[in-house]
Amino acid sequence: MSKIISIVMSFVLLLSSQFPGLTSFLDSVSTVLTGAPYFSLSSSDSFLNDIKDSSIVKLDSNTGYVHDILLVFLKDDVSLLQRHTIFKSVNGFCIGYLKPANLFVLKASFNGVNEMTSLCKTLMQNVGVVYASGSFAFKNKDAYTPNDPFDGLNTGTDRWDESNPGGGTWWLEAIDARNAWGYSSYFNHMNIGIIDSGFDTNHPDLSGKFVFPNALLASENIPTAHGTHVAGIIAAKGDNGTGICGICQNSTLTCVDWEPEQGQYWIADLRIIFGVGYTIADGAKVVNLSIGSSNSIDKGQPAYPALWMNTEGALVSAYTAILISKGYDFVIVQAAGNGDSQGNAVDSFNNGSFCCITEQNALSGIMGVPAKAVLDRIIIAGAAQNSGYDRFIQTSFSNVGSGVSICAPGSWVYSCSLANNNYYQYMSGTSMAAPIVTAVASLVWAVNPKLTGPQVKAIVCNEANTRYNVPPTNDKYWPDAPFQSYRMVNAQLAVEAAIKTAYSVGTVSGKAINSHGNGFECEIKAVCGDKEFNFSCGSDGTFSFLLPPGDAVINFINSDASYTVVNTSVQADKTVDLGQIVLH
Hints:
alpha/beta, Alpha-Beta Plaits, Rossmann fold, Immunoglobulin-like, 3 domains, eight-stranded mixed β-sheet, six-stranded antiparallel β-sheet, elongated
């Protein structure tokens, strides 16, 4: 009988290409049979608003899964009859769909995690299924922020000094942001994704920067200080006489407010999965996730249940592999997490989502995508604090372990906020470190759009493209946690490495000094051919930058606007050492 139905359905599908009216009819039939149309499939997530705290079945006090929901990724060529058979095998009915990954969210009744696992195995026995899983959840808790006092500095009068970062701009100085901006003539426009709590779209430093994947997501955006702060770090407008400068200013922010309604304590990973899918499908190349679950770990409980963590890692790795197999190229940057419930560093593996993916639990070979291709598109960012005198250490709350890829400033970071905070404020956390790394990765891709996601990660995280080593703090509540040193991300060196992949350039170096032979801080303006570059050197006077081959005119400008001019010739792959440039 099923063969007869299959032949009839195949004939009807063939006729539908000739008679458009049949397409609507089949969509209606498909919706009745499976819960979703066959031809006019589009992403739908209204079911997310129905997931309440009461929907979560606890595995322990901090982890759980969503009651009666299964996730099934189907191959693109699955027929209507196959889809019906697959869903029927678990008595499931489609309640949501994510187009980029061909992910169907099923309502299916089951009792307990063992039965849920059994139904997933049943689904995966069907030829058209790529992967099936339950929908997991974690306890939502505000990120731990150290009780650091506001430092009272007027950021409008901060003195920039890359040789000794300090004040409200220290986080930009520590990564050599100004010298990265000096190459702006090489930058293409970037689309950057942010999955976070809501964003203030009317902020004076961010207005016009935001887009949302659809009108519904735009209407669900509820501005918060956290999401706005993260957006400001990445893309706040520069040279507008107010506030701050974001790192990747020539950009559009494709945003999703993932936070549930006020008062809800549990977060379904589906919110994050859908958010990532929406932003990548909308063209985002680098996606920031300043989120995580390690804050819910009680003092004295070093890890989540292995069942939850390993299954979560498998699900997210399978999802990532499927996106890659469909031709999407991207980099995911997630915060390493801010320790346990008391702010004590633990293994970043405990932070959930993309932090969970390891070589051991990543599903290798999904859609022909090896596990390495998944891991090569994920950057986990730890947080550093300023120790003064050009030295940095990891913050005591920054999670650790082999999963952490790199460090970035994450303490006393000054960025955008809501009107009731006078639009700007200091925040601390790996939530601040992640967008710094996201913005640097975006600058790298902006220089050379032909780079792949793994190449972008390799450039950003390559030790040769960093300047500082960041050791762990001595304040170690968990002595057995996998503490180690990480490198500090560097915008200038990463951008220069990207430039070398696409352009012929040479290096100019030297030291600006005063009449006493001491290092001298100054601005540097270089003109080479039809391109203009702007750099700076800190109080130690050392400088190094790239220029295209040819004759160059380089102006070293004092704070009083007096200047010294140097003419030189730049050759490809060669270094011109200008020696000591005396300024008065």
